[in-house]
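Recap from last week: sequence in, structure out.
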Amino acid sequence: MTVRKQEPRDYRCHVRSALTLQRLVVGETDLAIHLPPGLWDAALEKELRDRLVEQRSLLLRYLAADPAFAATHQPYLPGSSAPPTAQHMAAVAAVAGVGPMAAVAGMFAALAGEVLAKYSRDVIIENGGDIYLDGEEDRIVAVYAGRSSPFSGRLGVRIKQALLPCGICTSSGTLGSSFSYGVADAAMVVAADPALADAVATASGNLVHCAADVGAACQYAMAVPGVCAALILCGEAMSAAGELELLSLSGI
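Predicted structure tokens:
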């Protein structure tokens, strides 16, 4: 079992964007939301909060009735009473080869994105390292793999506008509270479906037991239907594939 470093989410302070930042917390869902200035108001906050509370309540009610859904790390077929959110989590997790809860953060980022997309194409939602991203132009996403990583703050990826909206989700075996069987500093996956990206990030991160595994983990991620890019980091080792452009953040 991996011992984790618990680092604060101070990376949120380093976002460079003309968009304004708002924070919304509903239970374990802790969102950093970036929107055009003037868009966020009490009515929009209420609409988004109500949607998240509703979906969270449905999921928690189902988990109480079917605790194996939350406990398993393997693909799992939910019961007929499962709400659509749980069914979707289970479906994408099965494709990735992991348990349904591996998709929960990406799922709730996507649910928030569905609400905000009605009001703007320029939306960034970050939920504990899992991102719903949309916009009218290319986006540059900085890579964070822990304070000791040689890539943090130095490496970025350019996501082409043609891929938007999409999910960019990252799993780690050395940071954060989420369970991982591996020791990847960062396993980043890009997919149109944020829940799928989340599940595949977990699955590919599980495969990294040493720096030599980053290539195989990246190949695994890219073999999953619906994944368009992957980036795996462990120590000084890196493997990347798919529709992303690696950038040095120096001078940006």
